[in-house]
Amino acid sequence: FNRPEGVGADRRFIYVADTANHAIRAVNRESLEVTTLAGSGARGPILPTEASTGEELASPTDLEPAGDRLYFSNAGTHQLGVLDLRTGTVRAVAGNGEENLVDGPAGTALLAQPTGMTLDPVSSRLYFVDSESSAVRYLDLAGPPQVATLVGKGLFTWGDQDGPFGDALLQHPHDLLHRGGSLFVADSYNNTVRELDLTRGIVTDLLAG
Q: What is the pLDDT of residues 123-172, one digit of tens each?
């Protein structure tokens, strides 16, 4: 491995985002055998929207298994991708490869170095953090895929502020976790953990005071 940054798991495998190898790998939980599922070790270009095999990746940082699909953040091209575990094909699911903070249909939305991911299977929302825009966003998988922003004001806009989603500011978050009605965010450059209450629309610094 070379600087692995994210993991996910199902009953058979531990999946690893092998970031500096630009690869997604799997560790068999029984035999501990390691196999490469996608990526060649070389940094790849923008992910295509059509599923294909042999695609090179660009700094994958995290992943989230969902049945036969493995979603991953392709931070180097500012995209989210999906690996079909049955066919081995890869395609983009959000972001067109340009860097910015723009919501809307997944194919035209703009992301900014997406890193950590977490899936809410009930709402079919794939939550993720965009590190360069200090934002918490989600990809809605329930209908036509859409990207929306919960917290974040723009590319390279950051701060250290709690409060309503529209006012709150983070600084270069790297990971997040969905539990119950909240998201717990590693607000990395502010050296804290924040809770995003999805019902109340409020951000709280859990380590304040």
A: 999 999 999 999 999 999 998 999 999 999 999 899 999 999 999 999 99
Q: Confirm if 198 and 183 have CB atoms less than 8 A apart.
A: yes
Distance CA 22, CA 102 (A): 25
In the three-class reduction of DSSP (H, G, I as helix; E, B as strand; rest coil), residue 21 is classed as helix
Element (H, E) at 178: strand 175-179
On the 0-12 / 13-18 / 19+ scale of CB atoms within 10 A, 132 is buried
User: Which CA distances in Å does 9 have to 5, 29, 175?
Assistant: 14, 9, 16
From the number of C-beta atoms within 10 Å of its C-beta (0-12, 13-18, 19+), residue 197 rates as middle
Q: Which two tokens stand for residue 150?
A: 């919960």
d(CA 65, CA 29): 15
Which whole-number Å values give the CA distances from 94 to 131, 204, 205, in the listed order?
16, 28, 29
Closest-CA residue to 76 (of 97, 101, 90): 97
- Chain length of the chain: 209
* Cβ atoms 110, 91 nearer than 8 A: no
The single residue listed with the structure tokens 């249909």 is 105
